[in-house]
Write a structure and sequence with these properties.
The complex is a heterodimer of chains A (162) and B (542).
Chain A (H helix, E strand, L loop, with lengths): L9 H4 L3 H18 L9 H54 L8 H27 L30
Chain B lengths: L2 H25 L1 H4 L7 E5 L2 H5 L1 H15 L1 H13 L4 H9 L2 E6 L9 E5 L2 H10 L3 E4 L2 E4 L4 E6 L2 E6 L2 H13 L16 H5 L4 E6 L7 E9 L2 E9 L12 E2 L2 H6 L6 E6 L9 H6 L7 H4 L2 E11 L6 E9 L2 H23 L11 H17 L1 E2 L2 H8 L11 E8 L2 E7 L2 H14 L8 E2 L1 E6 H11 L20 H20 L1 E10 L2 E9 L22
Helix pairs in contact in B: 4-5, 4-18, 5-6, 13-14, 13-15, 17-18
The chains are: A mainly alpha (162), B alpha+beta (542).
């Protein structure tokens, strides 16, 4: 059964009568615009022919139009969206390049970055100082007398003098 | 000369003196803004010189390592706000004078930044900071939470707090009349720095036991920059010993092809107070007077990288007058040192007698064999025991050589046989140059790239991460260890970007130091921030 059959009814299509009538009206308007409706058609046969031609045209429109037009429509909408959001995207990307600087006040970012970096460097220096400390403790001031140098003593060796 | 001519001459002279004094006064105008008790002050009156041309590309990575990438990223934001290319903004901002100071060392202390600027430059800065005028000559940036004031050719910027605004007003008073009594101009430790014509000058006051202050004058050079450092402290800094000697700069340069760091300084062989701990453990390390009389007064400390294990290698060379005598002295001396090392490492078990003739004999035979090979293996265990295992120096081997040269020679000691061979070769080839020898307290260099690689491999004091395969539920590494890791990474990053640093110093007194640094930055960004890589399981068990 096709929706063009005479037996096709509002109930079978599941659509309201108003919708179908609006559709038919739209098609007739299109036909008028194309000049396909015969002005003098008054007979029942001519009206049926007009009706059939209108429904065939409506069939084409309602089945083919979405398939052909929707991809173009989506592409057009995507282009419009892209064009409209481009400035926003540019700001977003430049903001991410500048890390958090785009959000937080510049002075705060600089200050916190400096503090964090100097704290890390200070930890590193402390680690190095701990490594070097046994070899470079505070040197004796030059004007202070040095401690007496212990002589190299064989007696300190673990084995006895032979 | 008529009286009218005299009057004209007098007036011209007076005008010249007034003009000269105002110019001279303006020369330290950046420091005049800072209160006398400031802990940090910077006066950059030609920072564009440092950043000019190819040098800018070299210095930027150093700045980034010092300040962090976030801080430098803000510059891009400012450039965008000014709607100008970054280079133009940099030229606008850095072409004039910039002053910065911290009035106190408190963590939350306010700061003040000053731009000496014409109206156009001032407008650029105000636009970058999105500032709005709040009163004639005063501006506020709500977004940046900054307060600004235009006074006498300066644009003073501070945080928009009560204290920040007070800092601005106090500094503004000192702009037209520089007040030595209330500003850093009157600080005794600043006087040498005030006389310097360097484009960038930095003053740092130290708290704690070190005390005193450090003054740094920076200048651009062909391949980087030079820094003149003058430090006056309340206690002796860095364990350095005063004294000067004619040191061989040619030799130090010759070692640049292989060493991580080299330091040459005067030494007479007498242990200092800093050696007291080691002398107590190993009395034999004190050279006898007869051996010391052969020393020529110059000692070179050379740090390298071990090829086999992730640890540094050390070598210390003493210039001597007579190589033949030195060889005999050295073997005799090292016999005692090796025995002392063995004694400190080897402890008798509880069931053993303190005095065991058989054990002592075996030890003596081993020592004889080591002396013949001129190496002793107890240095590693000794380092583990007395410096601690976290220093990861357990693979060290004490070895030594005597180098004979046409001008005398060297007694060389090292912690690694391969490094000993490396430095011995260089000492033999390069230590009799006829170049003039500067009489200074020390000369040396640090190769930042090698030092960085060594630190990343070595990771002193960092606990090894538990192996995920053998101990899947091992507890995470303690936070302190992570802090050390990050610290070492930050330091190695900075060293890598600084590139090669050559230095020389002298100490006019035990608490004062004058140093000159030549920095040749690496000129490229370091590795991106990441956690320190642990050695692969089994890699150290070769």
């Amino acid at each position: 059964m096709s929706w063009r059959d005479d037996a096709w009814s509002d109930a079978q299509t599941g659509r309201s009568g108003f919708s179908l009538r609006a559709e038919r009206l739209l098609v007739r308007v299109l036909l008028v615009l194309r000049g396909d409706v015969r002005e003098g058609a008054k007979s029942a046969t001519e009206r049926r022919q007009d009706r059939r031609r209108a429904e065939e045209l409506a069939d084409i429109i309602l089945t083919d139009f979405p398939r052909r037009a929707i991809p173009f429509g989506i592409a057009a909408v995507a282009i419009i969206v892209l064009l409209c959001t481009m400035p926003l995207m540019r700001d977003l990307f430049s903001g991410s390049t500048a890390r958090s600087a785009g959000v937080a006040p510049v002075a705060n970012v600089v200050e916190s970055s400096l503090r964090a970096r100097s704290a890390e460097m200070s930890d590193g220096l402390e680690a190095l100082r701990a490594v070097v400390a046994p070899f470079a403790a505070d040197a004796a001031p030059a004007n202070e007398p040095r401690e007496a140098v212990a002589p190299c003593c064989d007696a300190a060796a673990p084995f006895k003098r032979s | 000369m008529t009286s009218s001519t005299r009057a004209v001459v007098w007036r011209l002279s007076a005008a010249w003196i007034v003009a000269w004094s105002s110019t001279a006064g303006a020369d330290n105008a950046g420091f005049a803004l800072a209160p006398k008790e400031s802990v940090l002050a910077v006066d950059a009156r030609g920072i564009s010189d440092l950043l000019d041309g190819p040098r800018g590309a070299l210095v930027r990575p150093v700045l980034e390592a010092f300040a962090g990438s976030d801080a430098l990223g803000t510059f891009d934001v400012l450039a965008k706000r000014a709607n100008a290319p970054g280079e133009k903004v940099a030229r606008d901002v850095f072409s004039g004078r910039i002053a910065f100071f911290l009035p106190s060392a408190d963590p939350g202390a306010e700061w003040l930044l000053g731009f000496e600027s014409d109206d156009q430059r001032c407008e650029h800065v105000l636009r970058m900071l999105s500032a709005k005028m709040s009163a004639p000559g005063r501006f506020e940036s709500a977004g940046e939470r900054l307060s600004m004031r235009r006074v006498g050719g300066w644009l003073l910027i501070a945080p928009a707090t009560e204290r920040g605004r007070a800092l601005i007003d106090e500094s503004a008073v000192r702009v037209p009349v520089e007040d030595a009594a209330k500003s850093l101009l009157g600080e005794p430790l600043m006087q040498d720095l005030l006389a310097s014509d360097a484009p960038v000058r930095v003053f740092m006051r130290h708290s704690g036991s070190l005390g005193g202050a450090t003054a740094i004058a920076l200048r651009g050079a062909k391949l980087g920059f030079h820094a003149e450092v003058a430090g006056n402290y309340e206690s002796a800094p860095f364990g350095l010993t005063p004294g000067r000697h004619a040191l061989d700069a040619h030799l130090v340069r010759a070692l640049e092809d292989r060493a991580v760091m080299v330091l040459s300084n005067p030494a007479d062989g007498v242990p200092s107070k800093s050696d007291a701990f080691w002398v107590a453990l190993l009395p034999e390390i004190v050279p006898p007077p007869a051996m010391r009389t052969n020393l020529a007064g110059e000692r070179v400390l050379m740090i390298g990288m071990s090829a086999d294990t992730p640890m540094p290698t050390l070598a210390c060379a003493w210039r001597i007058e007579d190589a033949e005598q030195a060889e005999a002295d050295q073997d005799h001396f090292m016999k005692g040192v090796c025995c002392a090392l063995g004694r400190t490492v080897e402890q008798p078990r509880s069931d053993q007698k303190e005095s065991d003739l058989a054990r002592d004999r075996a030890t003596a035979e081993l020592a004889e064999a080591q002396i013949a090979e001129r190496r002793c293996a107890e240095l590693g265990p000794f380092a583990d025991r007395y410096l601690g295992r976290p220093l990861k120096l357990g693979s060290s081997v004490l070895c030594w050589s005597t180098v004979e040269t046409p001008c005398g020679g060297w007694q060389v000691y090292s912690s690694d046989p391969r490094w000993l061979a490396d430095v011995t070769e260089r000492l033999a080839a390069s230590s009799c140059s006829g170049d003039a020898r500067p009489s200074v307290g020390g000369i040396g260099f640090c190769d930042g790239v090698r030092a960085s690689a060594m630190l990343r491999r070595w990771q002193p004091l960092v606990e090894p991460r538990p192996d995920a395969l053998t101990a899947p539920k091992a507890p995470p590494r303690p936070a302190a260890s992570d802090r050390i890791s990050r610290g070492i990474l930050a330091l190695s990053d900075m060293m890598e970007r600084l590139g090669r640093v050559r230095f020389r110093y002298e100490m006019p007194s035990p608490t004062a130091i004058r140093a000159h640094f030549e920095v040749e930055p690496q000129g490229r960004l370091g590795e991106p921030a990441r956690r320190l890589t642990e050695p692969k399981p089994g890699a150290s068990r070769e």
